[in-house]
Hints:
This protein is α/β, with parallel strands linked by helices and 563 residues long. The chain has helices at residues 2-10, 13-26, 30-40, 45-58, 72-83, 102-109, 113-118, 141-155, 165-179, 193-198, 234-245, 255-262, 267-276, 283-294, 310-337, 340-348, 360-366, 371-383, 406-415, 418-435, 449-459, 463-470, 473-482, 485-495, 501-516, 518-521, 527-535, 542-552; strands at 91-95, 124-130, 184-190, 205-209, 223-227, 358-359, 388-389, 401-403. It has a five-stranded parallel β-sheet, sandwiched between helices. A three-stranded antiparallel β-sheet has the order 6-8-7. α10 links the parallel β3 and β4 (205-209). α2 runs antiparallel to α3, α12 runs parallel beside α14 (283-294) and α21 (449-459) packs parallel to α24 (485-495). Residues 297-315 have low confidence and may be disordered.
Amino acid sequence: AKRLxxxxxxxxxxxxxxxxxxxxxxxVYEQLANRLSGEMNGRxxxxxxxxxxxxxxxxxxxxxxxxxxxxxxxxxxIRKELRKLKDHxxxxxxxxxxxxxxxxxxxxxxxxxxxxxxxxxxxxxxxxIGKMADGSGAVDKAALLEKVQNFIVRMxxxxxxxxxxxxxxxxxxxxxxEQHPQSLLILDDVWEQETAQIFSVxxxxxxxxxxxxxxxxxxxxxxxxxxxxxxxxxxxxxxxxSKCTGLTVSSLPYEASEIIKLCYGSPIVLNIIGSGxxxxxxxxxxxxxxxxxxxxxAGEIVVRTHSPDFNRRRSSEQQRGRxxxxxxxxxALSEESLPLDITDYFHWLVVFEEDTVIETAALATxxxxxxxxxxxxxxxxxxxxxxxxxTTQSNKDGFLSFRIHDMVLDYLRDTVNDDKQRSYHxxxxxxxxxKCKGDFASLEPDGYIHQKLLSHLHSAGRYDVLGSLLxxxxxxxxxxxxxxxxxxxxxxxxxxxDLPDDLVATVMEFQLFISGHLNVLSTGxxxxxxxxxxxxxxxxxxxxxxxxEEAKKDNKSIWLTWR
Length: 563
């Protein structure tokens, strides 16, 4: 080894740098390459680790799960394509069936000091997209606009908020290229081509999707694709089961290989099954799990398309259906093994929406318990792989935050009946109502309720309370302070058709007020500032009356009114 390094150094620093670059690209010698690169620049492995953690945290990249299995071959393919983005703006698309670990592969592919320093020194920025199409298949443009606006506000030092979809692409281009050059935009779980087109900017982009052609209409230099149509190998699956169960790979029963095969190597399915078999070496439990998987019924898959590639789509849909049934079976097995006192808490998770970060403080209120019990309960569900930690560290209050995988939410929505779901939403509303003594506008922020109360009221069928809040000036102020004005405006558009007739006119008055003052409200103004704005709105009735009532409570201030 000494002779090799002497020879390389004798040929000059450029040759040595090229040698290190080749090592990095090989993946097998990645750790050695990082160490050599760090020593050349006076950096240690600890420095690199801290650097990676900071970049990923700043970019909202989700943390890797504790039981993560490094899939070397896929990571090698993805990083090879990502390195092609160093010199030009293009897209890398990771596509495959749900449950095959695309999101974690995307996150892990950028969790490397060398690729961050060499290719994306400007950082990486993560945005979860999700399904934007409604029941008819058309993209929900209001929801998509809200998502893009919130991302732009996050990225733009001027916190500008474009007002329509037509202008978002150009403004996103400007923000990313001028304020965040040499960085990577990661779009997770993009479903539709129309959604991808909104992000059709000349910028380096990584996408995870179920649709291999999702970037077909995107204006970019190149689209590099990585197919993740295979799950974990037998060895990788056994390593994951080993981590989940606490058993060594060599001591896993022979049923393990068959279970991996029947689960299509899906990481999420094996995580859930393995967590339900923690420290279980008795073959009877493993045999029971295997038998349940063998006897599951995938159901008949109906494909509503008659395009020329019908057979290919049918096959894909059938496999997707079988994977979902396998996942549902694995979740059911874990649910059956849950302690009785935790099972109901698990069912409560059905009230949450996809991609929602849930703070422990909110769980304590929703479950009617204290924060320590709430965190302990949720951590138990994490240990069963039925929930995930949203961050690796506690928040400022010393508690963790969590999220629920959308496939687990799908399972709960399929198995918890509609009446029970509505009951959970109603109980949630009542518990927050009790906490604030009937005055929702006075609720202390817990990182959740101001963003989601309107949705829970709608799901609970409490349209009267929903309408009252949408026509309440103090709730409006609380929302723009602890949520954001554009999302609030979207809620008015989403729920107004379901409100009682006697509230519609007033709600429309408030909606027009928010729409006309978005730029001011987006700064999270004080109650006094919003009252002054409302006092100067012509042709308003209920809004003006509420503003006058608030103004009377503060007789030390000078108020200007419209005449």
